[in-house]
Amino acid sequence: MKFKGYPEFTPNVTPKNVFKRGAFGGTYFRTIDSGVTGKKHNGKTVIREYPKEWFKGIDIEKMVISPEYDKKVNKYGVKCGSSLEDWESKDWIIKQDPYGWFQWYCRFYKGRRTKDDSRQIKRWSGIVGPNGRFRRRLMNEIIKKNKKFNDYSISPVIRQVLLHWGYELTNRDLMNYKKNKGRKKSKKSKRSKKSRKSKKRRRSNKNP
User: Using an 8 Å Cβ cutoff, are 60 and 20 in contact?
Assistant: First the structure.
């Protein structure tokens, strides 16, 4: 998935499919009392801005606007994520998107562009981009245990987090990471050998 003018932003799961696969315990667009806007936001009203096609075949009450978190709704069957209050206290949320990053993503995907885009994309990159900490953590765990990219027994919580950010690991991404990691290891080994040789030469020159 690519967006004109934002080559670094490459999620591979659309907002529609994030909901369809199961995310946020079904509560993302629940009715909230926003500490950022000072207003109550009704979930049923909020989702009217999105295409009805996004929610086709989805139990909206259970998978989108539920007031109660149900980990069984999530694709990986685990609970993850912080509370809205926690996000607000860290200044991650601003008035234009009182629900947070995923609301921003839904609107960005639809075509909206705002001054907040660069900040939100930077957050995405730090978490699930090619060098994002959660993406790397998952890949390193898979490599360490010599498993396949789609062995869901490996780090289901991290996988669920990645899905919430519009990304799921692919075999291609894992293979590219392995190759790059191998190159870095090789370069480090060569530098280490050069360093050892240099030290030997210095010792040799000191001796008569």
Answer: no
